[in-house]
Amino acid sequence: MVAGNWKMNKTLQEGTALAAELKNNVKNPTCEVVIGTPFIHLATVAEMLKGTPVHVAAENCADKESGAFTGEVSAAMVRSTGAEYCIIGHSERRQYYHETNDILREKVRLALANGLKPIFCIGEVKEEREAGRQNDVVRKQLEESVFCFTAEEFAQITLAYEPVWAIGTGLTATPAQAQEMHAYIRSLVNANYNAAVADNTTILYGGSCNEKNAAELFANPDVDGGLIGGASLVADKFMAIINAR
Ligand code: PGA
């Protein structure tokens, strides 16, 4: 899978223009292609891309089902736009909006209950990597937010390893660092479920992945694709990354 994460970029007009470019140019991708757009774009973009190989994701959803939560958008609302995926647990949500592993487990639960496929993000910050704690951090994120689900439910979840120090910084993890962590993540899935579930789990790399380094990252056996921020905002760059998979 190659998934874009537009974050808080693009007006509705700019977003639909980018979606139109992808619609016209992404014809027979050899991987699943997803774009994560702001909530207000979802209905329009999902309608535009219906029946094309480009699937649509929200970048977040609420941790509550419905009700008096002003400004929130529920998983059911996201699904009703035609979006199929939902990015959950992005490090920016964890850092700036204080989303804990417990909150994120609720979001994943509600996404699954409403027929959305979560793209669940995990990853350590710079200090944790420098202290050699990256494996512990990632293990806890998985244990507390997604390993409670049944194998059937877990099969709907895509994981995205995004070392926080690599996001938007131009400091990409080396292919060896990515492979090492992805293999570790797969071993945890194996231990918590079984080898078949582990083999079938899609584990994306994210963090300054671009059209220049994507092929090298994707060449690793446990790197199944990428979650792309900055480079997903430019159609040519995003398409070059899709073609690198
Ligand atoms: P980046 O963002 O590609 O701009 O580093 C990745 C992400 O945050 O998903």
Describe this structure in words.
This protein has 12 helices and 8 strands. It is α/β, with parallel strands linked by helices and 245 residues long. The chain has an 8-stranded parallel barrel with strand order 1-2-3-4-5-6-7-8, surrounded by 6 helices. It has one domain: TIM Barrel (Alpha-Beta Barrel). Helix 1 packs parallel to helix 2. It binds 2-phosphoglycolic acid (PGA).
SSE inventory with pairings:
Layout: E1 2-5, H1 12-25, E2 33-37, H2 39-49, E3 54-58, H3 75-80, E4 85-88, H4 91-96, H5 101-113, E5 117-122, H6 126-130, H7 134-145, H8 151-154, E6 158-161, H9 175-192, H10 195-200, E7 203-206, H11 214-218, E8 226-228, H12 235-244
Parallel strand pairs: 1-2, 1-8, 2-3, 3-4, 4-5, 5-6, 6-7, 7-8
Helix pairs in contact: 1-2, 5-7, 7-9
The structure holds 2-phosphoglycolic acid.
